[in-house]
Amino acid sequence: MASASLQFFAFILALFGVFGDITATLLPNWKVNADVGSNIITAITQMQGLWMDCTWYSTGMFSCTLKYSVLSLPVYIQAARTTMVLSCILSAFGICITTVGMKCTKLGGDPDSKSHACFAGGVCFILAGIFGLVPTSWYTREIISNFLDQTIPESSKHEPGGAVYIGFISAAFLLIAGVIFCTSCFKKQQGAWIYGPKQHHFPSTEQESNAGYNLKDYV
């Protein structure tokens, strides 16, 4: 029962991780312009994402421009696009597989098949967490390095946006969920390997009784 509750908790974490992963992939605020200049009153706020760049004006208007050209983008943005999409796909596969493999569901057939499905779903979550952690870390490194570069004008410097933080948290949720699913199935299989199937030993009362009768025949 405790293992089933732990798997359900990991499944909830994975759901939050999947939704956060998709949200971080689509949000346009991976980096926002930093207010580091001498001008206190800023008329606009610029945000850049993986798929579009958006500008928010002080009048309340909001406009976005899609990034159509892939080859003109920096390498870290191209890599972030690819890895985040792979993370979303793997996490979605993990949700489908662990739904079949969890102990609290009646899908998946016998316990061995459910255990294997649960382990495969955990591996998908771990890979999705890694694919989500790599682009967010790389993107953050590029933002910080540009921010500390003295040759770049202050108006062109940016800070990490909300999508980066959501990506970090979602990757952590997916990694934790994957580790829980894998370890819960591994412990079960390890116990079966150590102890093996139970063997039932019955006392040979019939043989003893026959031996007793044979001895009486000789008396």
UniProtKB/TrEMBL annotation:
<dbReference type="GO" id="GO:0005829">
    <property type="term" value="C:cytosol"/>
</dbReference>
<dbReference type="InterPro" id="IPR006187">
    <property type="entry name" value="Claudin"/>
</dbReference>
<feature type="transmembrane region" description="Helical">
    <location>
        <begin position="84"/>
        <end position="105"/>
    </location>
</feature>
<feature type="transmembrane region" description="Helical">
    <location>
        <begin position="163"/>
        <end position="186"/>
    </location>
</feature>
<keyword id="KW-1133">Transmembrane helix</keyword>
<dbReference type="InterPro" id="IPR004031">
    <property type="entry name" value="PMP22/EMP/MP20/Claudin"/>
</dbReference>
<keyword id="KW-0965">Cell junction</keyword>
<dbReference type="Pfam" id="PF00822">
    <property type="entry name" value="PMP22_Claudin"/>
</dbReference>
<dbReference type="GO" id="GO:0005923">
    <property type="term" value="C:bicellular tight junction"/>
</dbReference>
<feature type="signal peptide">
    <location>
        <begin position="1"/>
        <end position="20"/>
    </location>
</feature>
<comment type="function">
    <text>Claudins function as major constituents of the tight junction complexes that regulate the permeability of epithelia.</text>
</comment>
<keyword id="KW-0812">Transmembrane</keyword>
<dbReference type="GO" id="GO:0005886">
    <property type="term" value="C:plasma membrane"/>
</dbReference>
<dbReference type="GO" id="GO:0005794">
    <property type="term" value="C:Golgi apparatus"/>
</dbReference>
<keyword id="KW-1003">Cell membrane</keyword>
<protein>
    <recommendedName>
        <fullName>Claudin</fullName>
    </recommendedName>
</protein>
<keyword id="KW-0796">Tight junction</keyword>
<keyword id="KW-0472">Membrane</keyword>
<dbReference type="GO" id="GO:0005198">
    <property type="term" value="F:structural molecule activity"/>
</dbReference>
<keyword id="KW-0732">Signal</keyword>
<feature type="transmembrane region" description="Helical">
    <location>
        <begin position="117"/>
        <end position="139"/>
    </location>
</feature>
<comment type="similarity">
    <text>Belongs to the claudin family.</text>
</comment>
<dbReference type="InterPro" id="IPR017974">
    <property type="entry name" value="Claudin_CS"/>
</dbReference>
